[in-house]
## 1
Amino acid sequence: MHVAHINFLPPPKELAAADVFAHWPSLADIPEAAASSGIKVSVIQAAARRERVTRNGIDYHFMDVSKAKTVIDRGYQFAAQLDQIKADLLHVHGLGFGEDAFAISHYLPRLPVLFQDHADRPPPWWRRPQWRRWYANAAGIAFTASEQARPFTATGVLTPRTQLFAIPESSCRFTPGDRAAARAETGLHGDPCMVWVGHLIDRKDPLSVIDGIAQATSQLPDPHLWCAFGDAPLLAQLQQRLASHPQLAGRVHLLGKVPHARVQRLMQAADVFVSGSRSEGSGYALLEAMACGAMPVVTDIPPFRALTGDGCIGALWPCGNAAQLGHALVRIASQRPSREQVREHFDDHLSFEAVGRKWAGAYAQVLGRRAP
């Protein structure tokens, strides 16, 4: 079996091929997860110049399609490359590129196409007839959780017979490390020591998280929350909310933006990872936390249910319900979360090898259906 992954979104023009991997870690992470199951994987990447890179046994074909004037012209170039490498199946990244994949199918009608969702949204109503046409012959579509397909099926973009797969968007290379060393290095402390990693925006709902922790403070030994964030349009509101909870004085630490390597140390130092997200495409911060052994206390949304095994690891709480978050934190703290238990779940279900097995099963199922 030879599977070709294709990325239609070109990287910044100033980046050489070797630099794109640092800019987009998922460019290698997802194909390497698939290849870990023994499948031959190649990657085709739209780019500003043509290059070929071999990395960890995977060939990356950077294709210059900048001179192609139409989607069908680009489709011809991609199809020629796919035909040359003798791909058996095409794995398309992103549901927003249905037209590009449809153009390839114009030239390679027998090549099955499997799409992977990357936090995509259904199109506006006037574009839905086009999307229905582009996705009519999709061999399958993968979401982190199958429930994430509902907006697409409800609008008729996908038909009820479209084959769906539930596969984590990616995995994570973080490790549990030494908690005591991580705390000494970062200065994190608390019982429980809680970490938040995410933008301070409405969709992440940091205000409900603050309210929930405030309600639980009196029932926790020595709670501390450490917040790493990038965009922060709600920072002023968050600070006002903190001022309204005097019991949280000195217990919530706003770290601001931190380097990605630093995030690993924060997660290694944490007892609990907390999130108030109302929606996610997958949940990279949750993956990182579980890779480090931090117990998740996260919202009850489809991708978080999928990643935590329907809450068998950690606790799920209803979006916006601060009281339920408080109860969940008290319950988890009383159980004294085991990092080994969290990491074991990660290894079994979310590691590169585990995700690779899921992709191998999906590929085999798609090709099995197309065999006749």
## 2
Amino acid sequence: MNRKQLNPEAGAVAAFGQRLRRLRDERGLTQQQLAERCGCTDSHISAVETGRRSPTPQFAASADRALGTGDLLQRERDEIQRPSLLEGFREYVPHEMRAVEIRLFEVGIVPGLLQTPDYAAAITSGEVRRGAITETQAEERLAALQQRQAALERTPAPMVFAVLDESCVMRAVGGPKVMAEQLSRLEAFAELPSTVFQVAPYALGERRAFHLPVTLLTLPDRSQLAYAESAFRGQLVRDIRSVHPMMTAYHQLQAEAASQAASVAMIQQLRKDTP
């Protein structure tokens, strides 16, 4: 039997389809049998499972009833309407978790991999207050971040190069106590044997190589990927003709940024100035 392989990392629709197929398989149901219970056709079930059709709220509710899963699929369907993670990010994360080198550049906030729990919670709480995400989605984001951070502790540890725009450390998030702990976290990060930490000062002006956040990955086979985000989606770039210029720009950024010693001294001074 030919069965299409599913990739739940491709997006929320694909993740829903993979979950539906797994639940159906666990109950020993064919697509036809599930279709009869849901009041649709087996071709509709197939289209949803393979990500060719997005599930409607009515379909998710009927599938929950047919499979006895409470509101599980309805909540997963809500993720399609308003995802907790940017489109494209799910595809990126597995690569990050096996990369041997990670190069980060961030503007405005400390990048997720370097955030303390309280700093990350303050960021997500702000989004909940603005109505950008729900409480449940905030919890999902924090859980996903915890998994990503834990992956950095693997053996051997990946080399992590982090260049933060000065705005990341100057912008107060979560109040003085949270910010003081975050600055301490950055100082501790810089002391690790597998890290390089630098601040790109405001004085760089137009010489700063990037205007938006970017992450560059080197995988175990030495292939390289880039990941960048807009306000609405993330994009994983695999074409080496695009990745190589970004890698060159990153090296130029490192050369222009403050040294690690100077960057740590800046963090230490900010900690002293934090009430």
## 3
Amino acid sequence: MDLELRHLRILCAIADAGSVARAGVVLGYSQQALSSQLRRIEQYFGRDVFERSAAGVQPTRYGREILARARDIVARVDAIDVVPEADGMAGRVLRLAATNSPVLAGMTARIREEFPDLALTVSSVYASSETVEQLEKGDLDAAIAADYPGAELRHSEAIAHRGIFTEPTFVALPARHRLRRGLEVRLADLADEAWFLTPDDGAGWPGVFYGACEAAGFTPQKVHEYLGDRGQLQGMVAAGLGISPVQATFDPGAGVIVKALAGTPLWCRYVLAWRRDSMPESMAEALFAAAYAAHRELLARSPSFQAWASRTYTKTHP
């Protein structure tokens, strides 16, 4: 194996998180995949970089030396200024679309700040399948789309994509719900509830939701469709009209609480997809970095996600 910059970023992320599994959530890897990557990295060095324990991981004496050098290299690379004229986008319009993703605002703000001379247009495209179709036709340069474990995004060789993050799906409940006091709720205990669901996104939703309900032993009998208006959803949930699956970074308004689902039966991955012939790799990297940073900022501000991550990974996934 050749040592690459991404391997150094993995080591830094694991050290920062204190856990392979928690680092996996941040980086968008499964625990198994990241553990495999770490084993290969340690095989490259010929020595353990981390000590494992029930509480997580910590660098070995040798690992501390590796991490000091890795952080220096990563910091130097991150400090390199990407000059807009050098990445082939000067004087062009970058056509970006996004599905129902909370990272869009933070991502576009970062891109506008880094590339003030770049003309950026942003459109909302709910269905990931429609996003792929527009990319294939050349109507878009890049997009944020969603997919699900076992139903990964499909497209032609003209399109490239990269996972930005994978996060658990939580549930929004009325603040006075009968299950409000639990740290998490079982999907099976919500069998008799009315649900608010977003429409078919062409990538597997709501099929993955119904599949999880079937695995939990029930079929939702009361389902209402809504089109992704968060304010409207919060109002309906607060009024006790139903409950809804929500993103891990969902910010509940007054009268609404967010709970993790026991066993984490639902996951969603957000990906950056782009046309190979109209998007230079350097620009794709800049978009990815902006989306990744925006998501990390949202996670840091999400009490429900922080509580879930601490409870789940600290206790069960060193």
